[in-house]
């Protein structure tokens, strides 16, 4: 689910404009898993552009209120969701916490950083959804700590079926500011890629592990 189609197109335009997302079907990237990918996404780049950072922050905040109502607290997921989450919390005048990828090895050995109380309603901020694994690990940690997770919001999703299944099984709704289909539509309209490239990009999304450029 997306916040708004017009805004989703604008976010897609911004992500391509500043090369937070790169499309290279003829010169694919290699993910840490070894999968070859015609797309690379690093939404942290948006933080370096104040006007885009503001647009995304406001989009996040609008999605929080429209889909989940005002929560008690905003939570970011390490690492990409930390800065974005802090910006959203500031926009909404709410407390902020973040979830580490793993508990600290020293001190208080925290997994969740920041002050919160059991039973508080929380909306989770991510920058990107691929399979949903790391996001839902953070959701599980917050639920185990007694927080009431209302849902999650991210800037972008690849739209993999496995993510849909994982979020559904975890009973965690999510919203994104834009998505893979809208990104490809904009790339086509802006003549950033050829029709052959679009076909290749669409085939990759169906089965990344078996895609061949």
Describe the structure.
There is one protein chain. With 213 residues, the protein is α/β, with parallel strands linked by helices. It has a single domain (5-202), classed as Rossmann fold (3-Layer(aba) Sandwich). It contains seven helices and twelve strands. It has helices spanning 5-17, 50-68, 80-92, 133-144, 161-169, 180-189, 195-206; strands spanning 21-23, 29-30, 36-37, 39-41, 73-77, 96-99, 112-113, 121-125, 128-129, 148-154, 156-157, 174-176. The strands form four sheets. Strands 7-6-5-8-10-12 form a six-stranded mixed sheet, with helices on both faces. The protein has a two-stranded antiparallel ribbon with strand order 1-4. Strands 2-3 form a two-stranded antiparallel ribbon. Helix 1 (5-17) packs across helix 6 (180-189) and helix 2 packs across helix 3 (80-92). The chain is globular.
Number of domains: 1
- SSE pattern: HEEEEHEHEEEEHEEHEHH
* C-alpha-based Rg, rounded: 17 Å
Largest sheet: 6 strands, mixed
Portion in helices: 40-55%
What is the highest CATH level, the class? Alpha Beta
Structural class: alpha/beta
Give the second-level CATH assignment, the architecture: 3-Layer(aba) Sandwich
Strand percentage: 15-25%
Number of helices: 7
Q: Indicate the overall shape.
A: globular
- Count the strands? 12
| Widest beta sheet: strand line-up | 7-6-5-8-10-12
Output mean pLDDT.
94
Distance between the termini: 29 Å
CATH topology: Rossmann fold
Low-pLDDT segments, ≥5 res: none
């Amino acid at each position: 689910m997306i916040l708004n189609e017009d805004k989703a197109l604008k976010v897609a335009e911004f992500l391509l404009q500043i090369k937070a997302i790169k499309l290279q079907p003829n010169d694919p990237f290699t993910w840490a898993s070894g999968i070859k990918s015609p797309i690379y996404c690093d939404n942290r780049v948006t933080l370096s552009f104040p006007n885009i950072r503001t647009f995304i922050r406001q989009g996040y905040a609008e999605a929080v209120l429209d889909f989940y109502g005002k929560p008690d607290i905003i939570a970011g997921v390490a690492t990409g969701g930390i800065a974005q989450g802090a910006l959203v919390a500031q926009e909404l005048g709410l407390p902020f916490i973040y979830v580490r990828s793993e508990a600290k090895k020293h001190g208080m050995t925290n997994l969740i950083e920041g002050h919160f109380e059991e039973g508080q309603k929380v909306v989770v901020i991510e920058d990107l959804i691929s399979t949903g694994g790391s996001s839902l690990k953070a959701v599980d940690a917050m639920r185990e700590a007694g927080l009431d997770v209302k849902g999650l919001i991210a800037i972008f999703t690849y739209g993999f079926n496995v993510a849909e299944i994982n979020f559904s099984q975890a009973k965690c709704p999510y919203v994104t500011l834009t998505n893979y289909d809208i990104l490809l539509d904009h790339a086509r309209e802006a003549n950033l890629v050829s029709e052959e490239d679009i076909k290749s990009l669409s085939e990759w999304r169906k089965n990344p592990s078996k895609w061949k450029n």
